[in-house]
Amino acid sequence: MFARLPERGRVKTRLARDIGDERALVLYEAMLRDTLRSIGTANERLEIEVLWAPSTSANGDALHRAFGDRALAMQTGDTLGDRLAMAFSERFFFHRTEKIIAIGVDDPTLDRALIDHAFALLDSCEWVLGPAADGGYYLIGCRAASYNTEVFMDVAWGTDQVMSATLAKIRAWSATVAVLPERRDIDEGEDLRAFEGGGEVGAVLRGWGYE
Question: What is the DSSP letter of 146?
């Protein structure tokens, strides 16, 4: 899971243009807690690792408050594509991981059942993608033997072309890919009005008058 430490002015910055930095921080903290709770805990076959974005305020106490006792690693790279490529490469080539799935915190209703389903799909497909309604993706995964760093290169991150460009690359390699149902991230003000989940995020939004 790719995440940031909850810091005012550094999380949900696009959303903050609509609701302000303070509310964006409160909402991000709720999204982070809901997501961590929803995806569950590690077991003998599955490791859950939080890759946190570099921050000058990061220390042991801050990381533990945000992410608990989960396995942690710092993201490295200048762009999101670089950070994803590095994370996948290190785990496939140095940790001997069999399959990897990456998610973020933008969909706090994403649950363990969907993640387990995505891993199961990788038994018969080389890649798995979860499309987001805004043209990005909420989940990407692949098997070790199929990994190609080019999947994360030259992508216009933050645009509505991310999913289509990624899917085109995979298909150009004649690789098999499973596409999960579309879901909606929380990135902008209109996403708050469309949110239908519960948890801490639902409680926060109801308290702000979103129904």
Answer: G
CB atoms within 10 A of CB 209: 6
- Cβ neighbours of residue 37 closer than 8 Å, sequence gap 6 or more: 199
- Detail the DSSP E strand segments found in 66-201: 71-74, 99-103, 127-131, 137-143, 177-179
The pLDDT score that the predictor gives to residue 48 is: 96
Lay out the sheet containing 137-143: strands in order across. Answer: 99-103, 137-143, 127-131, 177-179
Classify 72 as helix, strand or coil: strand
| Structure letter (DSSP) for residue 124 | T
Q: Average pLDDT per run of 10 along the chain, which is 211 residues long?
A: 97 95 98 97 95 95 96 96 97 95 97 97 98 97 97 95 97 97 95 95 96 72
Token reading at 136:
């990005």
190 burial (CB, 10 Å; 0-12 / 13-18 / 19+) is exposed
Do residues 159 and 134 make contact, with C-beta atoms less than 8 angstroms apart?
A: no
Mapping DSSP to helix (H, G, I), strand (E, B) and coil, where does residue 195 land?
coil
pTM of the model: 0.95
Show the tokens assigned to 39.
Answer: 């995806």
Closest by alpha carbon to 36, among 98, 110, 119? 110
